[in-house]
């Protein structure tokens, strides 16, 4: 019980500091070190019967417990950098390069063109969400995809009669389902679940994702039509002083460049156990192959010096992802390690068992907790990376599938963060369209809440 009280106090402290927009990496690392130190002190006082397990399994002690606290960080960093870290960095690097050479803009334009044949603005809105969800599989940056769609899809929607608020709300939500092999969170979830990325994507994410996508599209139809009728002219009011003209364009690239962003996904779909099982590709390898193909395409039409200079953006983005996402993964795991070391998780598991809750009730509680954390923090990554490492042991104790708890957690963070007025994609879309972020989340809350409910129901049905 002492460990639970300490963990609760540290968690409250961590959440309060995160709400002040402090860097999550340092906050979680600091919180994790405090918890691990507390575990060591509790062990010295005889309060931990099993001893303080502050190092990951298989990692040898330095011989001094003070150094072991930092050995825990270095061992987590080395293991994650070689695995999920490289995957996240390569996917982000390729996405950035596609944007640099204009391929992402061309693909987004292609995807939005079929919508122009429809005359009903709300039917177009619903279909636009589905198109955006497909584009999200190839352009995993929520803010990046939103900005591309603000240039390509937003004018089409407004011209067809949708209000500015409706169009902006739709675009802000297209990346709410964090799915596919190019998603860092999805890859991390697959690794935690002990399966390859494509198995997680095809067997688990797609069946749930298709139904949730349709449900959110339908909810957008009714929600935006209702609010447009209720708001009247206010639905088109914008602050012209903050509206900015984006320079996102094709950068003179040929029209066939629109296929380049799809190459990694095509490679991963073809070369795996579902299609050609004699050749297996992992995500980083697919990204590097696609990057090489894209550079060859660029060398055909540009001077080598220019192409190589632009190609460095791939590696620059990899470095940025290490500094932001990979360090966040490590910090989250250290914090989770601290919760385990103090005996908090074991205590919570036993307490939950005594309540006699069924597996699905536990899943709903977990999803509710992490969804609220995502809305409050304005980020899905921080709470997910902090608590995902705990899921396998938690699921084992309750005799349920890891996926039953892990996948809803991972998908709920994307759905919930779009209901936060401080999340990056909402702020970006609001700033680009001259609309208040609070007015925007008023329009996104119903579709996202409905999506969460449908996601939970589908997970229960399929598992």
Helical percent range? over 70%
Report mean pLDDT, rounded to a whole number: 82
Distance between the termini: 34 Å
Shape: globular
**What percent of residues are in strands?**
under 5%
Briefly note the structural class of the backbone: mainly alpha
Describe the structure.
- The protein has 463 residues and is mainly α.
- It has one domain (2-462).
- Helices cover 73% and strands 0% of the residues.
- It has 20 helices and no strands.
- The chain has helices spanning 2-19, 24-44, 65-100, 103-112, 121-136, 142-152, 154-159, 164-173, 184-193, 197-231, 263-270, 283-301, 304-341, 344-355, 359-377, 381-387, 391-398, 402-417, 424-433, 437-462.
- Helix 3 runs antiparallel to helix 13 and helix 11 (263-270) packs across helix 12.
- The longest helix has 38 residues, at 304-341.
- The model is unreliable at 239-248 (pLDDT under 50).
Keywords for this structure?
single chain, 463 residues, mainly alpha
In short:
This protein is mainly alpha-helical and 463 residues long. Helix content is 73%, strand content 0%.
Write the layout of secondary structure elements.
Blueprint: H1 2-19, H2 24-44, H3 65-100, H4 103-112, H5 121-136, H6 142-152, H7 154-159, H8 164-173, H9 184-193, H10 197-231, H11 263-270, H12 283-301, H13 304-341, H14 344-355, H15 359-377, H16 381-387, H17 391-398, H18 402-417, H19 424-433, H20 437-462
Helix pairs in contact: 1-2, 2-3, 2-13, 3-9, 3-12, 3-13, 4-5, 4-6, 5-8, 5-10, 6-19, 8-10, 8-19, 8-20, 9-10, 9-18, 10-20, 11-12, 12-13, 13-16, 15-16, 15-18, 17-18, 18-20
């Amino acid at each position: 019980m002492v460990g639970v009280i300490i963990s609760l106090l540290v968690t409250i402290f961590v959440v309060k500091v995160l709400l002040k927009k402090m860097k999550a990496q340092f906050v979680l690392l600091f919180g994790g070190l405090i918890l691990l130190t507390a575990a060591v002190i509790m062990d010295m006082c005889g309060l931990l019967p099993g001893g303080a397990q502050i190092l990951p399994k298989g990692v040898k002690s330095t011989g001094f417990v003070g150094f072991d606290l930092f050995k825990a960080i270095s061992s987590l960093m080395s293991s994650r950098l070689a695995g999920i870290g490289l995957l996240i960095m390569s996917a982000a690097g390729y996405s950035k390069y596609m944007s640099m050479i204009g391929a992402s803009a061309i693909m987004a334009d292609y995807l939005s063109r079929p919508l122009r044949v429809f005359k009903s603005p709300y039917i177009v809105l619903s279909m636009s969400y589905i198109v955006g969800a497909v584009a999200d599989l190839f352009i995993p940056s929520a803010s990046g995809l939103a900005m591309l769609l603000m240039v390509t899809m937003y004018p089409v929607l407004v011209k067809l009669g949708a209000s500015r608020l409706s169009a902006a709300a739709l675009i802000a939500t297209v990346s709410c389902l964090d799915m596919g092999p190019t998603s860092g969170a999805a890859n991390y979830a697959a690794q935690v679940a002990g399966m390859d990325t494509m198995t997680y994507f095809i067997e688990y994410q797609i069946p749930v994702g298709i139904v949730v996508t349709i449900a959110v599209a339908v909810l957008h139809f009714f929600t935006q039509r209702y609010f447009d009728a209720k708001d009247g002219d206010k639905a088109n009011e914008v602050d012209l002083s903050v509206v900015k003209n984006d320079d996102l364009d094709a950068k003179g690239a040929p029209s066939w460049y629109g296929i380049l962003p799809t190459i990694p996904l095509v490679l991963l779909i073809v070369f795996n156990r579902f299609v050609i099982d004699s050749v297996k590709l992992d995500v980083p390898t697919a990204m590097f192959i696609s990057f090489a193909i894209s550079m060859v395409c660029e060398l055909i039409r540009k001077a080598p010096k220019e192409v190589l200079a632009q190609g460095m953006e791939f590696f620059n983005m990899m470095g940025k992802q290490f500094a932001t996402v990979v360090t966040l993964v490590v910090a989250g795991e250290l914090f989770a390690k601290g919760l385990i070391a103090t005996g908090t998780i074991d205590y919570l598991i036993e307490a939950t068992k005594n309540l006699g809750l069924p597996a699905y009730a536990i899943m709903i509680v977990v999803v509710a907790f992490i969804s609220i954390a995502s809305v409050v923090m304005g980020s899905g990554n921080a709470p997910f990376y902090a608590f995902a490492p705990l899921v396998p042991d938690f699921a084992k104790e309750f005799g349920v599938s890891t996926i039953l708890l892990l996948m809803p957690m991972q998908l709920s963070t994307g759905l919930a963060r779009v209901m936060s007025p401080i999340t990056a994609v909402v702020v970006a879309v609001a700033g680009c369209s001259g609309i208040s972020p609070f007015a925007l989340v008023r329009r996104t809350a119903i579709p996202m809440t409905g999506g969460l409910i449908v996601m939970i129901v589908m997970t229960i049905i399929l598992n």
